[in-house]
C-alpha cells in the first residue's frame, strides 16, 4: 500500500486553515491505534508533571500530531520538535504560530544521530522513528544524554512480529506489513523486545519497560480503520466520497477493538511501546 500519496492529498485539504488541521489531528487520534497507546502513557506522565514547567522533545515529529496533543496537557510545557524534513518543519512552525503557540513550541531540522542537548528534557517522545535509523544505539545514547536525571523516554516502534514493512512492500501475504508507517524505508524488520531493552540499557538507561501493542484486537482494528480504506483510496480517489459512510459502520467496531488492545496484555503483537528512565 502507498501511504504517502494519500497523506499528501489529505494534507492539501486539512492544511487549508488551522481549524481543519486541528480536525485532522483529532481524526488521527481517533483512528490510529498507536495514538491511543501513546496518549495513555502521556496521561500517566501528565498526572505527575502537569503543573510543572518542563521541557519536552518530540524526536521525529513528522507533521506535529503528538506535539499538538502534548501541548493540550499543560500550558507550562515547552516543547521542541525535531525532524529531518525541512518542509514539514516549516509547515509545523507556521501552524503553531497561527494558533499562538510559537512562544513555547518550536520545530527544527535535526539529525537524531547527532542531536544532543545535555540534561535538558524531562520527557522525550519518539513515535515510529527508530525503525528508520540504522545507528539506533547512537540515538539512544543521545536521548539518554539529553534527558534530565529521572527523565523518561517514550518510544513506539514496530516489533519483529510483523510490524515493519522493511522487506514486504509487495508481499500481499504479509498482511501486517504496513501497520506502523507512512514511510517505506525501514532499516530493520522491527525490534525483538529483548533486543530493544538491551540496547537501551547499553546506552545508559537504568530502567526499561517494553510491552507489545497491536495484539489480536489491534490487528483487526488496523485492517478496518486503515488498511481497507487506504487500499480503496489507492484504487480511486472517488472513494474519498464513500469514506465517511464506511467509517460510520466500521469505526464503532474499531473503537471497541482499540479499547481492548490498549487495556489488554498481549503475549505478542506487531508493535512495541517502550518506556525507559535515566
Detailed description of the structure:
The chain has 278 residues and is of the alpha/beta class. The chain has a single domain, classed as Vaccinia Virus protein VP39 (Rossmann fold, 3-Layer(aba) Sandwich). The protein has nine helices and seven strands; from the N terminus they run αααβαβαββαβαβααβ. Helix 3 (33-49) packs across helix 9 and helix 8 (216-235) runs antiparallel to helix 9. The model is unreliable at 164-183 (pLDDT under 50).
Topology, pairings included?
Elements: H1 3-14, H2 18-31, H3 33-49, E1 55-59, H4 65-71, E2 78-83, H5 86-98, E3 105-109, E4 121-127, H6 136-146, E5 147-158, H7 193-202, E6 207-213, H8 216-235, H9 239-263, E7 271-277
Parallel strand pairs: 1-2, 1-4, 2-3, 4-5
Antiparallel strand pairs: 5-7, 6-7
